[in-house]
Amino acid sequence: MPRVLFITTENLTGTSGSNIATSELIRTMANSDNIDLSLIAPAVDKPSPVPESVSTYWLTSKPAGTIRWHLQHQPSMAWALLTAMFKERPEQIIIRIGPSTLIPTVVGLLPGVQYKVLIRGFVHRNLSVQRPVKTLMWVNTIVSDKTIVAFEAIAEMLRGLGVRSEITVIPNAVDPNLFTVNEEQPPESVRDVIDDATFVVGFIGSMEDRHRVDTLVEAVASLPQSIEMALILIGDGPQRAELEALVSEAGIQNFTVFTGLVPHKTVPQYISSCDILYGISDPEKPSNPIKIYEYLACERPVITTKTPELAFIEQEQIGIAMEEVTVQSIHNALVDLYETPPNEREAMGRRGRAYVSQHHSWSAVVNELVGVEA
């Protein structure tokens, strides 16, 4: 059983896809009978999602959205790393790269310890100063024994920085035991709108520009009035007020619901309330949306974009993958799925769940990441 030290600067109680994916990785490793896990992560104010069985070395707590924390936490990172190395004697260190992953690179030079770098997104994307962060990513990959990324666009970026070592792409995933069809009544917040609809379209995630929810709203508004539909937008974010105004201007407020943030454990109930769901990777800001795998695990067809990681959507006929994100392309996808008989949509959903359960479970990701047998 390998002794694994996982290091992250992600907020483990946060609500972003990045936060959730990291928490799911940790939970899955902690529950594995084949891994002896220890952890370094920012301290949390809410109840910790980390099982008590995991030896955890907490960094200073992380205020939301502050680059200053990444500079100020370096002493606590140094102390936590030194203590964990002495007490746990890890055989593998897996580090989820953040904007300040500096001190752990020293460990990558030590003999007898595998140093694995995990890059799940464009770490530098929203920072005003990007070059130092790109340099940190480059340094980490240079000293690593293995580099793992979530999608091909990250690998291309690293190659552009001069990384010549092998880069492994392991996309996001889902726990099919947690995400499954929910047969309960729809949540009360959406029940009235759903009751009057024959076609329910949903989106779950942060309401920010790169998710192109505004384009979805405009596409829904362009549909024929003969379609009795509902639009359910689950989540919150900087664009919410703008989206609410857009919904009113488009005249679709009577069949649109903004739920706000909901607990992650209730997300399957909201997904199951919809007929189809939307989640794209903005070509200008590529990603590998975790929501797509969650939608599919709940047996719902999806509307997304064509990326190497999501090529299986059309190959398995479990949704529509668009070449570009425009009002017209989303309109066409919505009409195509609306005109697909309900029994065929249900068959698409079953195929989707079967596929992600077999190929995109967090257990499979962890086994490949650590190098243990299922």
List keywords for this structure.
Rossmann fold, 17% strand, 374 residues, alpha/beta, elongated, seven-stranded parallel sheet, 13 strands, 14 helices, single chain
Describe what is shown at a glance:
The protein is α/β, with parallel strands linked by helices and about 375 residues long.
CATH superfamily placement of the largest domain: Glycogen Phosphorylase B
Query: What is the string of helix and strand elements?
Result: EHEEHHEEHEHEHEHEHEHEHEHEHHH
Number of helices: 14
Largest sheet, strands/sense/barrel: 7 strands, parallel
Query: Which residues sit in consecutive blocks of at least 5 with pLDDT less than 50?
Result: none
Whole-number count of domains: 2
Side by side, the strands of the main sheet go 3-2-1-4-5-6-7
**CATH fold-level label of the largest domain:** Rossmann fold
Rg calc? 21 Å
Protein name: Glycosyltransferase
GO molecular function: glycosyltransferase activity
InterPro entries: Glycosyltransferase_grp1
Keywords: Transferase
Explained architecture:
- The chain has 374 residues and is of the alpha/beta class.
- It has two domains: 3-170, Rossmann fold (3-Layer(aba) Sandwich); 188-359, Rossmann fold (3-Layer(aba) Sandwich), CATH 3.40.50.
- It has helices at 17-31, 67-72, 74-88, 131-143, 152-160, 188-195, 213-221, 240-250, 267-272, 290-297, 312-315, 327-339, 342-359, 362-370; strands spanning 3-7, 36-42, 55-59, 92-96, 114-119, 146-149, 167-169, 199-204, 229-234, 256-260, 276-278, 302-305, 319-322.
- The strands form two sheets. It has a seven-stranded parallel sheet, sandwiched between helices.
- Helix 7 links the parallel strand 8 (199-204) and strand 9 (229-234).
- The radius of gyration is 21 Å and the shape is elongated.
- The two termini are 13 Å apart.
